Amino acid sequence: MPHDFYWQTHSMATLSPITKHPARPLLNLDPILMGGLIILCGAGLAVLYSAADHDVGVVLHQSVHFVIGFLVLLFLAQIPSKQLFKWSPWLYLGGLTLLVMVLFVGYSGKGAQRWLDLGVIRFQPSELMKILLPMMIAWYLSDKHVPPSLRYIVVALLMIAAPVWLIFLQPDLGTAVLVLSLGFFVIFLAGITWRLLAVSGGLILASVPVFWFYLRDYQQQRIITLLNPESDPLGAGYHIIQSKIALGSGGLYGKGWLNGTQSQLDFLPERSTDFVFAVFGEEFGFLGTVLLLFVYGFVVMRGLSIASYAEDTYSRLLAGSLSLSFFVYFVVNIGMVSGLLPIVGVPLPLISYGGTSMVTILAAFGILMSIHSSQNMFTS
Amino acid sequence: MAARDFFKDIRLEKRYFRTRIYLVALLVLLCILILALRLFYLQVSSHDHYATLSQENRMKIVPVPPTRGLVYDRNMNLLAANKPSYQIRVTPVEVDDMEQVISQLGQLIDLEEHHLKKFYGDLKRKQSFESITLKVNLSEEEVARFSVNRHRFPGIEITAHASRYYPMAGVNAHALGYVGRINADEMQKLDRKDYSGTTYIGKVGVEKFYEQALHGTVGYQHIEINAQGRRLRVLGSIPPEPGQDVMLTLDAQLQEVALQALGERKGSVVAMEPETGEILAFVSTPTYDPNQFVSGISSKQYAQLRDDPDQPLFNRALSGLYPPGSTIKPMVALAGLHYGVTRADETMWAGPFYQLPGSQHKYRDWKKEGHGRVDMPKAIVQSSDVYFYTLAYKLGIDRIAEFLAQFNFGSRTGLDTWGEAKGILPSQEWKRKAHGQPWYPGETVITGIGQGYLLTTPLQLALATSVLATRGQGAQPKFLRKFLPASRPSEDGNDKNQVPVPHSVDIADSIYWDQIVEAMEDSVHEPNGTAYAMGKDAGYRIAGKTGTAQVFSLKKDGEYREYVEEEIDEKLRDHALFIAFAPADKPKIAIAVVVENGGGGGTAAAPVAKAVLDHYLLGNEYAQQDAS
Lengths: 380, 628
Known about the structure:
The complex is a heterodimer.
Chain A: H1 2-13, H2 31-51, H3 56-78, H4 81-105, E1 107-109, E2 112-117, E3 122-123, H5 125-141, H6 150-169, H7 173-189, H8 194-214, H9 217-227, H10 237-250, H11 261-264, H12 276-309, H13 313-337, H14 355-377
Antiparallel strand pairs in A: 1-2, 2-3
Chain B: H1 3-6, H2 10-45, H3 47-58, E1 59-64, E2 71-72, E3 78-90, H4 98-105, H5 113-125, E4 132-135, H6 140-149, E5 156-165, H7 173-176, E6 178-181, H8 184-189, E7 200-204, H9 205-209, H10 211-215, E8 219-225, E9 231-238, E10 245-248, H11 252-262, E11 267-272, E12 279-285, H12 291-294, H13 299-307, H14 316-319, H15 329-338, E13 348-350, E14 353-354, E15 363-364, E16 372-374, H16 376-382, H17 385-395, H18 397-405, H19 428-435, H20 441-447, H21 458-469, E17 480-484, H22 511-525, H23 532-535, E18 543-549, E19 575-582, E20 589-595, H24 601-618, H25 620-627
Parallel strand pairs in B: 2-10
Antiparallel strand pairs in B: 1-8, 2-3, 3-4, 3-5, 6-7, 8-9, 10-17, 11-12, 11-20, 13-16, 14-15, 18-19, 19-20
C-alpha cells in the first residue's frame, strides 16, 4: 500500500535531532490558539446575553454547546493526525451516507431539510462535511506529486462535487458554498498550477447562470435583495436594512453593552444567530468590530502558521484548509451582515447561537491542535 | 500507484506549500481589510445617517390631547365636565383567532352588532399592529369583569380617556351645545397638528363657539417603541396646555325653572340682564341629552331625534322664527310717538274691525266687540288691534322698519354661538328684493300687530325687551361671562374688558319711554291688562306685553290669513308669546317667552315668564312656596 509506505518515509524524516520546541504542550493544546478561541467564546456569550433579551437560559445553553465543543476539541487533540489520515476516506463515505439520508429521512425546518434526528441529538450532517471533505481531499492529494496533474484534480473535484451537490439539494446554499470553497482551498494549497486554477475559475464563473437557474425562489430573492435592499424594505430587504442601521448607529464607540436599541427593541431579526454581529457592532462600535476582526484574523493566522510548520503533506493541507474554513465563516458572515454579500445563512463562528456549528468549529480546532502538537514532537 | 508520486520531492513540496500559505495569508489580510473598511464606512463615515434611522426606528412622537376646558354657569355650577371613560382596544397582530376571542369577550362585555360591524371594518382598513377600538364607554362593571380575565386576552387592553360629560343632561343643551367625534369636513378646516391627539370637537353652541379656548394646546410624548410598535417607555414629553375653563352667564337653576315651567310644551325662554346683555336663561323645548352625542350616537338614535315631529334638535330660542304678534305693539307705539304720528293721550275709536280707506276688507280685532275709545296706554294694556292697525297705516312700513331696526329686528344679535337666525324685518325694499313684488298697504296694517312678514327669534325679542328696559340702551347678548381662572390676553371677551355694544335708540323725547313702560306695567298689574293674571300677586313690578302669533303666517310665503281657532288642530293653533322686564323701575332681567301652539300669550306664556322672574328676583325659596 503506497500510503503505508509514505508514512514510513515520514517517520524517517522525523528522526531529525533538531528540536525547536522541546516540550509537548499540556494535553496537546496550543495555548496561543486556545487563548484566541476563549476570547471569541467569551465575547460570544456576552453578546448573546444582550441579543437574547437578557435570557440567562440561552447563555447557559450556549455554554453547554461550548463545553461539548471543547470536549470534542480535547478528544481530537489527543488523536495523532496519522490516525485521522487512516480514517479519512471512511469518514468521508460515512458523511456522504448521512447527507443522502438527510434527503430522505431528514427533519425539515424553514423550508429546507437539513437536520438528522439521532434520537438523542439532532444535527446537520452538512456541518460534518466542513471537516470531512478537507480530510478526504487532503488524504487523496497527499501522495500526489506537486503540482498535481489535471487527472488528480478532476478526481478531487468530483469528490468535492458529491457532498456539495447533496447539500445544495437540501437546500442549504450557504453551507454548500462553504464546503465547496474548502475543497478548493485544499486543491489550491496542494499546489495546483496557476493555469489550471484560471481554467477552473473560468469554468465556475461560466456555470453561475446555470447554477442561478437551480436556485430556489427565496435564494434568488436574497441575492436580488443584496443588490437593492430598499426594493423590499419590509420583506427580504428588512434584514439587511436593519442590520446596517444597527451597525451604523453603533458609531465609533458603540451604544454600550445591553444598550443597542436596534437589538433590544426587536428591530433586528435573527439577532442571536446569523445577525449577532450586528448586535455586537451596535453595542461595541467600530472599535469593537475592528478588535473582533483582529482576533479572528489572529486565530486564522495562527492556524495557517501551524499548517506551514506541519511535517507531512496531509497535515499541512488539512490544517491549512481548516483554518481557511474558519476564515470563510467569519468573512462571509460579517460580509453579509454589513451588506457586502448575500444573506446565505452562515453563522458568525463561535459567537452565533447554535450547537452544531460550535461543535464543528471546535472539532476543527481540535484537529489543528493535534497537528500542532505532532509538529512539536517531530519538529523540523 | 505511479512511481513518480512515490519519489516526490518533499522539499519542493514544502516550498510550494509555504508560497501558497503566504498567498492565502495575504488573501485573509485583504479580506479583513475590506471588512474593516466597510465597517469604517458604516460605523464612522455614515454614522450620522444610520443614527438618525435608528432614532426614527425606535422613537415615535405621540400627541397628547389637552384636557378640554370646563364650563360653569354664573354661580360656578358645572355645566360641562370631563370624566374618565374606558375603551377596550384590540391589537390584531397579537390575537391569534380573532373570531373566537371576540366571542369570548362578548361574554364579559356587552357587544352589540354595530360595535362588531365597525370593528371588523376597521380591522380590514388598519395595519395589524395598530390597535383598534372595539367599544367605548365601558361600564365600571365591564371594566372590572375584563380586568379579572385580562390574562386570557393577550393583545386586548382597556385604556382610559377623558370624555365630555354634561351633568345637567338636557337642561342647557341648546345653549351649551355638545362635542362629538371630529368628522372629515371638520378635519379639513382644523389645525391638524393641534388636533392630532383630539377625538372630539365642539359641534354646536358654546362648545363650538369657544372651541379654540376650550380645546387647549396639544402636547407631545416621545416614546420608545419596539419593532411591533408596542410602547415601551416615555423618553420625554411636552405637556399639553389644558383648555381654558369658561364661566357662562347662564344661571343653571333658572334654566331648570324655565324648563320646568315650559313642561311638555314646545317653546323657548330667553332671559337676559338688560344692562350687560348677559344671557341668564336660554331654553328651547323639547330638549335632548347632549351626552348621547359624545360617545358617538348610533344612527338609529340619531334618526329618532331628527325625525321627532317636535324637533328636539331644533334650537327654537336661536333659530325659531315667530311673528312677534302683539309683543311688537310697545315698539310700534314708540315709533308713533317718535315720528309724531300720534300722542300718548290722543284717543280714537277702536271698534271690532279696521278697514283701509276705499277697501271692503275687514281687519278684525282679537276682541269681537272691540275696545271702544282708547288712548295709547289703554291700547297697549288691552292690546287693541284696531288701534295699532290704524297707527301702523299712519306710520307706513318704511318708518316702522327703520324704527324697529334700532331694536335689532331683522339682524342677528351677535350672541356668541352658532346658527342664529336673522328673522325678517319687512320694508318696501325688502319685499321687492325678496319677492319681486310691490308692498301692499294691507301688509303694513298687519305689521302693526306683529303679523305678516315680520318674523323674530325669541332671542331677538329678548334683546328688544332689554332695549325697552334700558330705555334704548341694551347690550349685545352674550353667553361668556369670563374665562377662568384668568383670561389670556389674546382671548376676546371678558366681562370687564368687553364694552357692551350699545343699541341706543334714537328717540325724539325720552318721556316716550316712560309712557310706554308705564303702559306695559299696567298691562301686567291693572285688572283690565292682558297679563293681569300674572301680575296680580307679583311681589315686584313687571312691565310686560302679551302676544299671540298666528301659525299660518309661519308658512314660507309668510302670507297672513284669517282663521277660526276651533276649526284647526292643535298644531296650527296660535303661538303664545310674552315679553317682560322686572323690576319695572330698575330692570334686572328681561325675558321673552314663546309657547308654540299655546294659544293666548296671557294664559300660556306669561306664567312661564312669571316663574323665571320669581326665581330670579325673589330666589328659590319664594318660587317653591309660590308653586305649592
